[in-house]
Write a structure and sequence with these properties.
177 residues, three-stranded antiparallel beta sheet, 3 strands, zinc ion binding, Homeodomain-like_sf, transcription regulation
Length: 177
Amino acid sequence: METERSKEQYRECMRNHAASLGTYATDGCGEYTPDPSSPGGLRCAACGCHRNFHRKYVAFGLGGGSGGGLPSPASSDDRGTEGKRRTRTKFSEEQKEQMLQFAERIGWKIQRREGGGSAARGDDEVARFCREIGVSRQVFKVWMHNHKNSSVSSSSTTITTITPTAINKGSPSSLIH
């Protein structure tokens, strides 16, 4: 069985050799070739750059050495999970509305769970709400964190107007102490 290391391929060098000059220039190295004389073998024999400067491709598939899959660029989102990413949670409009109303009611904060035996009253309320709308407590907590600044609440928007008569109510002598 092939290891993950054998599926990795390092292609063209992406190192910017002119970064100190404020411009962009690559050396034209087309593929990483390990240099056996360098310590650890992580330098390229063709251009002398470290392997990390070369574009990494990961070949997915079951076959052996003859094109066992299409090469796909590896990204920073792949965290050792072989290309599987967490699926994004989709909420219905009804769930969004209910979560918005509940979050405003509790003040956009969920109390921490206590490690002891009995749960706090607020925690029971959050758990009950999450069961009712069909989301986990963690998903609701993340949703609240992502939406606490973007929500427009009628209770949080207060407009204060200052009229000239309100300013002139006090006499100038009462303003100076």
